[in-house]
Amino acid sequence: MPLNACELEIDLFCRGLRVPDTVSLDGARGVSRTRAGLGSGLELVLPSASRLKKAIWVNVPVVEHFVASSPYVLEGGPAAGYHVRDERAGTAYPVQVPREPAWYDRPTSRGVPMQRIGVMQGTYLGIYVNKVCTFWNFEPRLNCQFCTTGQNVGDAEITEKTIADVVETCRAARDESGATFVHLNGGFQGSRGIESILPYVEAIKRDVGMLVGVQLAPERDFSRYDQLIDLGVDHLSFCVEFYDPQWFARICPGKARMLGQPLFFDAMAHCAGRLTRGAVSGEIIAGVEPLEQTLKAIDAITALGCFPTVCIFRPTIGSDMEQWPSPQYDDMLRVMRHVYEACRRHWIPIGAAPNIEVSIVVNPDDTALVADRTPGFYVYEAYRRSVKWLARPLFLRKGRARGPAIAH
Ligand code: SF4
């Protein structure tokens, strides 16, 4: 039986895709080693026949060591169209290879190519705004073992991004790529992470008007989150990564030593209490710690009224974990079914925001395609449709530029 779009997404994350030299990727979005390195794959759009979701964006691993034994191979070309062939059964899945945005090579007003400021990851714009995460500066290093930010910032992307760089890049992504959401992240910056990101949020809200998400290591002074929320930030996410404290400490030594795992959940709870339901998320990595711990993490995040974003572990080239195995499909399918069930149990309105498709994770609303069709499923789907419809005016209002403040 052919896989549906979400099953194929999960399997491609786990096994990767071989791209023969004979297949032209002219005009395709390049492999982009930015931020934590998760965008290191080839962006694909998987069409879906389901009414629940029409297309799924996925950033498929193509360079990591495990890809060499993948049964999936890319065929076709820019003129005839592409498909992914599963050589086990001979099944061919039609796919789209999104084109590189024309604005990528355009310079900002101070002459920096915009793709060194931000990159599209699915349909949203991702920008790493702060200096290199300081976990990379310790001796010995305290960086998370799966991360490559310390190698990418200053190389694939520029270290110092001015507010004008960011505003101009956001405007280009909104006007020419239809992006509605920009995600700003910045790793660990001591107690100065939020403080340094505030002017960017303010400028984007004033001059561009996109939905803005922020992801930083948690800070102990929660009034900083209140400042961000007062400026109009739309989404806050917290990278918990692992639930088991020992795995957390082993893979994320900096986070364990400098912050401690409980702070992630406390900050999440604080922000969830101040923002609308479903505006806060907890990010975890599946496929490293024992599966039961990943399921517990999903339960803990949804119990706070937040949604889980689950990255399927990718042993990214250049990371300390590049030789680790990629996760198993059956395990990841179980995780994604659990995501759906946990969101359903807690009435988290997943998929309500307009046009936000994240290619580096399995989006929570993708998981509807693999969920069991129980009576509860249909009730929750009706709820999700109503929330999406009712939230439209709110998102329209939030997505408008505020313009300069008028002095009285
Ligand atoms: S906190 Fe960890 S994952 Fe985030 S940038 Fe720093 S080292 Fe990378």
Description of the molecule:
- It is a single chain.
- The protein is of the alpha/beta class and 408 residues long.
- Strand 3 (72-77) and strand 4 form a beta hairpin.
- The termini are far apart.
- It contains eleven helices and twelve strands.
- Helix 9 (291-303) packs parallel to helix 10 (329-345).
- A seven-stranded mixed β-sheet has the order 6-7-8-9-10-11-12. A three-stranded antiparallel β-sheet has the order 3-4-5, with no helix packed on it.
- The radius of gyration is 20 Å and the shape is globular.
- Residues 36, 133, 135, 143-144, 147, 149, 187-188, 217 line the site of iron/sulfur cluster (SF4).
Percent of residues in beta strands = 15-25%
Report mean pLDDT, rounded to a whole number. 92
For the largest sheet, list the strands in their spatial order: 6-7-8-9-10-11-12
- The rounded distance between the terminal residues' Cα atoms is 67 Å
- Could you say which structural class the secondary elements and strand pairing correspond to? alpha/beta
User: How would you classify the quaternary structure?
Assistant: single chain
Give the topology:
Elements: H1 5-15, E1 42-47, E2 55-60, E3 72-77, E4 81-86, E5 91-95, E6 119-121, E7 124-128, H2 149-152, H3 163-177, E8 181-185, H4 193-207, E9 211-215, H5 223-231, E10 235-241, H6 245-251, H7 253-258, H8 261-274, E11 280-286, H9 291-303, E12 307-312, H10 329-345, H11 375-398
Parallel strand pairs: 7-8, 8-9, 9-10, 10-11, 11-12
Antiparallel strand pairs: 1-2, 3-4, 4-5, 6-7
Helix pairs in contact: 3-4, 4-5, 9-10
